[in-house]
Known about the structure:
By secondary structure, this protein is mostly beta strands. The chain folds into two domains: 136 residues, no CATH class; 106 residues, no CATH class. It is built from no helices and 21 strands. One of its GO terms (molecular function) is carbohydrate binding. One of its GO terms (biological process) is carbohydrate metabolic process.
Amino acid sequence: VVLDNGMLQVTLSNPQGFVTRIRYNDIDNLLEVLNEESNRGYWDLVWSSPGSTGTTGIFDLIEGTRFEVIVENEEQVEISFTRTWDSSMEGKLVPLNIDKRFIMLRGSSGFYSYAIYEHLEEWPAFNLDETRIAFKLRKDKFHYMAMANNRQRFMPLPDDRLPKRGQTLAYPEAVLLVNPVEPELKGEVDDKYQYSSKNENIRVHGWISTNTDPPMGFWQITPSNEFRSGGPLKQNLTSHVGPTTLA
Protein backbone atom coordinates (compact mmCIF):
# COMPACT_ATOMS: atom_id res chain seq x y z
CA VAL A 1 0.00 0.00 0.00
CA VAL A 2 1.48 3.37 -1.04
CA LEU A 3 0.55 6.79 0.35
CA ASP A 4 1.86 9.58 -1.91
CA ASN A 5 1.09 13.31 -1.88
CA GLY A 6 3.77 14.33 -4.37
CA MET A 7 6.11 15.44 -1.59
CA LEU A 8 6.33 12.31 0.55
CA GLN A 9 5.78 8.65 -0.27
CA VAL A 10 5.13 6.02 2.42
CA THR A 11 4.86 2.31 1.64
CA LEU A 12 3.21 -0.15 4.03
CA SER A 13 2.93 -3.93 3.84
CA ASN A 14 -0.58 -5.29 3.24
CA PRO A 15 -2.26 -6.49 5.41
CA GLN A 16 0.41 -6.41 8.14
CA GLY A 17 0.71 -2.61 8.28
CA PHE A 18 4.50 -2.41 8.65
CA VAL A 19 6.08 0.79 7.30
CA THR A 20 8.61 -0.59 4.84
CA ARG A 21 9.65 2.53 2.93
CA ILE A 22 9.64 6.31 3.36
CA ARG A 23 10.74 8.18 0.25
CA TYR A 24 11.58 11.89 0.59
CA ASN A 25 13.91 14.45 -1.05
CA ASP A 26 15.01 11.99 -3.75
CA ILE A 27 16.18 9.48 -1.12
CA ASP A 28 14.56 6.17 -2.02
CA ASN A 29 14.16 4.99 1.58
CA LEU A 30 14.90 6.77 4.87
CA LEU A 31 14.37 3.49 6.74
CA GLU A 32 17.11 0.90 7.17
CA VAL A 33 17.09 -1.14 3.97
CA LEU A 34 19.40 -3.74 5.55
CA ASN A 35 16.61 -4.72 7.97
CA GLU A 36 13.74 -7.07 7.26
CA GLU A 37 10.59 -5.23 6.17
CA SER A 38 8.98 -5.97 9.55
CA ASN A 39 11.87 -4.26 11.36
CA ARG A 40 11.80 -0.78 9.83
CA GLY A 41 8.65 0.98 11.04
CA TYR A 42 6.18 -0.82 13.28
CA TRP A 43 3.83 -0.78 16.25
CA ASP A 44 4.61 -3.18 19.10
CA LEU A 45 3.52 -3.93 22.65
CA VAL A 46 4.51 -5.95 25.71
CA TRP A 47 1.77 -7.66 27.73
CA SER A 48 1.58 -10.03 30.68
CA SER A 49 -0.90 -11.96 32.80
CA PRO A 50 -2.43 -10.32 35.89
CA GLY A 51 -0.15 -10.64 38.89
CA SER A 52 3.02 -10.87 36.81
CA THR A 53 6.02 -9.07 38.25
CA GLY A 54 9.25 -7.71 36.86
CA THR A 55 9.93 -7.57 33.13
CA THR A 56 8.60 -10.99 32.13
CA GLY A 57 6.08 -9.72 29.59
CA ILE A 58 5.42 -11.11 26.12
CA PHE A 59 6.66 -9.03 23.17
CA ASP A 60 4.14 -8.64 20.36
CA LEU A 61 5.02 -7.13 16.99
CA ILE A 62 1.53 -6.02 15.97
CA GLU A 63 0.73 -7.57 12.60
CA GLY A 64 -2.52 -6.66 10.91
CA THR A 65 -4.71 -9.20 9.13
CA ARG A 66 -7.11 -6.85 7.34
CA PHE A 67 -6.60 -3.63 5.36
CA GLU A 68 -9.23 -0.94 4.80
CA VAL A 69 -9.37 2.60 3.42
CA ILE A 70 -11.16 4.84 5.94
CA VAL A 71 -10.96 8.24 4.20
CA GLU A 72 -9.87 9.09 0.66
CA ASN A 73 -10.38 12.57 -0.76
CA GLU A 74 -8.36 15.45 -2.21
CA GLU A 75 -7.23 16.65 1.23
CA GLN A 76 -6.32 13.44 3.04
CA VAL A 77 -6.09 9.66 3.02
CA GLU A 78 -6.55 7.52 6.13
CA ILE A 79 -5.93 3.77 6.08
CA SER A 80 -6.45 1.04 8.65
CA PHE A 81 -4.74 -2.27 9.48
CA THR A 82 -6.72 -4.35 11.98
CA ARG A 83 -6.23 -7.49 14.01
CA THR A 84 -9.15 -9.06 15.90
CA TRP A 85 -9.05 -11.36 18.93
CA ASP A 86 -11.21 -14.33 19.90
CA SER A 87 -11.11 -16.97 22.63
CA SER A 88 -9.10 -19.42 20.51
CA MET A 89 -6.15 -17.02 20.87
CA GLU A 90 -6.24 -16.93 24.68
CA GLY A 91 -2.73 -17.10 26.11
CA LYS A 92 -1.20 -16.65 22.64
CA LEU A 93 -2.11 -13.06 21.73
CA VAL A 94 -2.98 -10.07 23.86
CA PRO A 95 -6.81 -9.93 24.26
CA LEU A 96 -7.31 -6.77 22.26
CA ASN A 97 -8.84 -5.78 18.95
CA ILE A 98 -6.17 -3.54 17.43
CA ASP A 99 -6.64 -0.97 14.68
CA LYS A 100 -3.49 0.78 13.41
CA ARG A 101 -4.19 3.98 11.48
CA PHE A 102 -2.00 6.01 9.13
CA ILE A 103 -2.95 9.41 7.70
CA MET A 104 -1.38 11.56 4.99
CA LEU A 105 -2.48 15.12 4.20
CA ARG A 106 -2.07 17.10 1.02
CA GLY A 107 1.03 19.32 1.04
CA SER A 108 2.50 17.80 4.21
CA SER A 109 6.05 16.49 4.53
CA GLY A 110 5.03 14.10 7.29
CA PHE A 111 2.36 11.57 8.18
CA TYR A 112 0.28 10.72 11.24
CA SER A 113 -0.20 7.42 13.03
CA TYR A 114 -2.37 6.33 15.93
CA ALA A 115 -3.88 3.07 17.16
CA ILE A 116 -7.21 2.04 18.67
CA TYR A 117 -7.11 -0.75 21.27
CA GLU A 118 -10.44 -2.38 22.19
CA HIS A 119 -10.91 -4.79 25.13
CA LEU A 120 -14.39 -6.24 25.65
CA GLU A 121 -15.70 -6.61 29.20
CA GLU A 122 -15.94 -10.41 29.07
CA TRP A 123 -12.39 -10.90 27.78
CA PRO A 124 -9.51 -12.01 30.05
CA ALA A 125 -7.70 -9.41 32.13
CA PHE A 126 -4.07 -8.61 31.33
CA ASN A 127 -1.33 -6.05 31.94
CA LEU A 128 -0.35 -3.75 29.08
CA ASP A 129 3.24 -3.07 30.09
CA GLU A 130 4.30 -1.06 27.06
CA THR A 131 3.17 -0.07 23.59
CA ARG A 132 4.77 2.22 21.01
CA ILE A 133 5.60 2.94 17.40
CA ALA A 134 9.24 2.59 16.36
CA PHE A 135 11.27 3.62 13.33
CA LYS A 136 14.70 2.24 12.38
CA LEU A 137 16.53 4.72 10.15
CA ARG A 138 19.42 4.22 7.75
CA LYS A 139 22.73 4.15 9.59
CA ASP A 140 24.54 5.44 6.50
CA LYS A 141 22.44 8.65 6.52
CA PHE A 142 21.47 9.64 10.07
CA HIS A 143 24.32 10.30 12.51
CA TYR A 144 23.21 13.39 14.48
CA MET A 145 20.51 13.03 17.15
CA ALA A 146 18.56 15.87 18.78
CA MET A 147 16.19 15.79 21.76
CA ALA A 148 16.39 19.40 22.96
CA ASN A 149 18.49 22.53 22.48
CA ASN A 150 20.87 21.26 25.16
CA ARG A 151 20.64 17.54 24.32
CA GLN A 152 21.97 16.86 20.83
CA ARG A 153 25.13 15.29 19.44
CA PHE A 154 26.82 13.08 16.86
CA MET A 155 26.06 9.49 17.84
CA PRO A 156 27.96 6.20 17.68
CA LEU A 157 27.06 3.68 14.99
CA PRO A 158 25.21 0.47 15.87
CA ASP A 159 28.37 -1.36 14.77
CA ASP A 160 30.20 0.25 17.70
CA ARG A 161 28.06 -1.79 20.11
CA LEU A 162 29.08 -5.14 18.60
CA PRO A 163 31.64 -7.34 20.42
CA LYS A 164 34.59 -6.39 18.19
CA ARG A 165 34.10 -2.69 18.91
CA GLY A 166 32.25 -2.54 22.22
CA GLN A 167 32.27 -4.16 25.65
CA THR A 168 28.97 -4.89 27.38
CA LEU A 169 28.91 -3.63 30.96
CA ALA A 170 26.62 -4.46 33.92
CA TYR A 171 23.49 -4.73 31.75
CA PRO A 172 23.02 -5.23 27.98
CA GLU A 173 22.01 -1.66 27.17
CA ALA A 174 25.28 -0.20 28.52
CA VAL A 175 28.26 -0.71 26.19
CA LEU A 176 31.77 0.71 26.53
CA LEU A 177 33.10 1.85 23.14
CA VAL A 178 36.60 0.37 22.91
CA ASN A 179 37.23 0.55 19.15
CA PRO A 180 34.51 2.74 17.60
CA VAL A 181 34.41 3.68 13.92
CA GLU A 182 34.94 7.31 14.98
CA PRO A 183 38.04 7.25 17.25
CA GLU A 184 37.01 10.36 19.20
CA LEU A 185 34.17 8.34 20.75
CA LYS A 186 36.55 5.81 22.31
CA GLY A 187 36.02 5.43 26.04
CA GLU A 188 32.41 6.61 26.00
CA VAL A 189 29.58 4.46 27.32
CA ASP A 190 26.53 4.20 25.08
CA ASP A 191 23.24 3.48 26.84
CA LYS A 192 19.80 4.23 25.43
CA TYR A 193 18.56 5.17 28.90
CA GLN A 194 20.91 8.17 28.87
CA TYR A 195 18.55 9.69 26.33
CA SER A 196 15.27 9.02 28.13
CA SER A 197 13.13 11.98 29.10
CA LYS A 198 10.20 12.91 31.32
CA ASN A 199 6.80 12.48 29.71
CA GLU A 200 6.11 16.21 30.08
CA ASN A 201 9.22 17.04 28.02
CA ILE A 202 8.75 14.59 25.15
CA ARG A 203 7.50 16.80 22.34
CA VAL A 204 9.97 16.53 19.44
CA HIS A 205 13.04 14.35 18.99
CA GLY A 206 14.78 12.64 16.11
CA TRP A 207 17.71 12.56 13.73
CA ILE A 208 19.44 14.76 11.15
CA SER A 209 21.23 13.40 8.09
CA THR A 210 24.79 14.66 7.83
CA ASN A 211 25.70 13.52 4.33
CA THR A 212 22.77 14.79 2.28
CA ASP A 213 22.47 18.16 0.55
CA PRO A 214 20.58 19.82 2.07
CA PRO A 215 20.64 18.16 5.52
CA MET A 216 17.36 16.46 6.35
CA GLY A 217 15.59 15.72 9.62
CA PHE A 218 13.42 12.78 10.66
CA TRP A 219 11.30 13.97 13.59
CA GLN A 220 8.96 12.19 15.97
CA ILE A 221 6.38 14.80 17.08
CA THR A 222 4.09 14.12 20.05
CA PRO A 223 1.18 16.61 19.99
CA SER A 224 -0.32 15.44 23.30
CA ASN A 225 0.64 13.29 26.28
CA GLU A 226 -2.95 12.29 27.07
CA PHE A 227 -2.29 8.70 26.04
CA ARG A 228 0.72 8.20 28.33
CA SER A 229 0.51 6.50 31.72
CA GLY A 230 2.67 7.15 34.77
CA GLY A 231 2.24 10.89 35.03
CA PRO A 232 4.32 13.83 33.75
CA LEU A 233 7.53 12.87 35.58
CA LYS A 234 7.72 9.27 34.34
CA GLN A 235 10.79 8.62 32.19
CA ASN A 236 10.37 7.16 28.69
CA LEU A 237 12.77 6.30 25.90
CA THR A 238 13.06 8.69 22.95
CA SER A 239 15.75 8.21 20.29
CA HIS A 240 18.95 6.20 20.60
CA VAL A 241 21.73 4.46 18.66
CA GLY A 242 20.29 2.48 15.77
CA PRO A 243 19.44 5.08 14.53
CA THR A 244 16.11 4.48 16.29
CA THR A 245 13.27 6.80 17.22
CA LEU A 246 10.35 5.79 19.46
CA ALA A 247 6.96 7.14 20.52
